[in-house]
Amino acid sequence: MFNQKEKATRADYELWRAGQDGTVTRIATDPDRLAFHVEPELGWLNDPNGLIQVGDTYHIYHQYDPFDAAHGGATLWNHLVTKDFATYENCGPVLFPDSDIDSSGAYSGSAFMHDGSIHLFYTGNVKRFDRNDYDYVLAGREQNQIHMVIDNPYELGEKRIAVGPRDYPDDISTHVRDPKILGHDGIYYMVLGARTKDDRGCVLVYTSSDLEAWQYSTRIELGEKFGYMWECPDLFELDGELVLVCCPQGVPAEGWRYRNPHQCVWFRVKADWSASTFELVEEGKPSMVDAGFDFYAPQTFEDNGGRRLMIGWAGCPDATALNPTAGRGWQCALTVPRELTMREGKLCQWPACELESLRGEVVRVNAGEYIENPGRLFDVVVSCQGTRALELAIRKGVFLRYVDGMLTLDMGKEGYGRDERSVEVGELRDLRILSDTTLFEVFANTGEVVLTSRTYSPAVPTMELQSAAVASMEFYRLAR
Ligand code: FRU
């Protein structure tokens, strides 16, 4: 009943949801539910959307298909709130594909605070079904960038097209989406992910002086083709640099890089603010944001304390890595919020400090010693400067290994399509592993390199730190 061909209204959803209490209760008690990550109460979740802090409350929206864990239903925005990034209140869906301008999905978007009002921008996906020969790339689709001005983040407002198909450059296909806003010196910049008619990914930049009227200004692209479509662009200032994060699709693997079906990379950007033009620095050398199996479509925002926080989707489109929970009615999650900093030209990520409130008492061990019965919920910090080799089992058959400058995540035999990933880290000084029941995030060298992955492997009976030189580990059990 719910699919891209039909609109889905709040009333349709509520009627359907009223029959789902049994499923929701069964899912809620499943041992593989996550303890401190956002995941859907049922169905499918993808990109984080509309991240914003209002007063002491963080509002987190995300792409949500409650109707089908395999994402064959309709795309809504779900809404959660948190004050501490450890516990979340699920406020339920707020944005529905219920109008002619977003009938095939309320796709990704972002929030921007201006003069006390929240400006939400998102993509209304419209697919036509009046013919059967559309390719949905050059024809049969419209993507509208929709603007809503709201005073109450629990209740969304009137939908109005801010930028639509008539406003796109002539060489751009029907794929244009995921608006994100950057304000600089009283001018607003909207970045949009796009695919050209000849299948090259790029970012379109529109400018506005009032967030209402937008003019196409320029595009950000690479000289060489780098994928056919760039999704979810995010342009932001960080520690004196301008950074573009985006998700290119269709990039061929290169050694250990770009092994996932689709990528998430970042670029350093140089702006000429007076001309509203942007150029990729160093001929656009891309760096991977996360070297794990399950990471895509992150979004950043600045909170009231001035932190730049990033939340990603711990998943990937067209994934070959599967989640067995899909068969039990749900899949996918968001990463923990990560504070971003720029250190020596590296984009570093570190779990928001609030997550430390989940820690129990610390147990300290040295290389060669064990943690008995570590379970699946832990936060581990390893100090290992000077070691040439190190190994730590984080689940049965799941190992982190460091040898001669390379960090390897070996998922063993039970990775559901996840096998092995290696990434160059140079000298390994430290490692942090933040582990939830079935999702873990690894931060190497204080967040210079990050790997996010799901695992459905059981806990190890003992966790031993093996190292070729002196190393130590702080182990914290985490509260559920
Ligand atoms: C990225 C993405 C976005 C789109 C949304 C639809 O995962 O494909 O480009 O807006 O998901 O759910």
Outline:
The protein has helices at 10-17, 21-28; strands spanning 43-54, 57-65, 76-82, 89-95, 106-114, 117-127, 141-150, 160-163, 172-184, 187-196, 201-208, 215-220, 229-238, 241-249, 265-272, 277-280, 287-288, 296-302, 308-314, 330-331, 333-334, 338-343, 346-351, 359-366, 370-372, 378-383, 389-395, 398-403, 406-410, 420-424, 430-435, 439-444, 449-454, 462-467, 472-478. By secondary structure, it is mainly beta.
Keywords:
480 residues; mainly beta; Tachylectin-2, Chain A; Jelly Rolls; 2 domains; six-stranded antiparallel sheet; 2 helices; 50% strand; globular; binds beta-D-fructofuranose
What does this structure look like?
The chain has 480 residues and is mostly beta strands. The chain folds into two domains: 10-350, Tachylectin-2, Chain A; 354-478, Sandwich (Jelly Rolls). Helices cover 3% and strands 50% of the residues. The chain contains two helices and 35 strands. Strands 24-35-26-31-32-33 form a six-stranded antiparallel β-sheet, with no helix packed on it. Strands 25-34-27-28-29-30 form a six-stranded antiparallel β-sheet, with no helix packed on it. The protein has a five-stranded mixed β-sheet with strand order 4-3-2-1-20, with no helix packed on it. The mean pLDDT is 97. The structure holds beta-D-fructofuranose (FRU). The site of beta-D-fructofuranose (FRU) has 14 residues, from strand 1, strand 5, strand 9, strand 13 and strand 18.
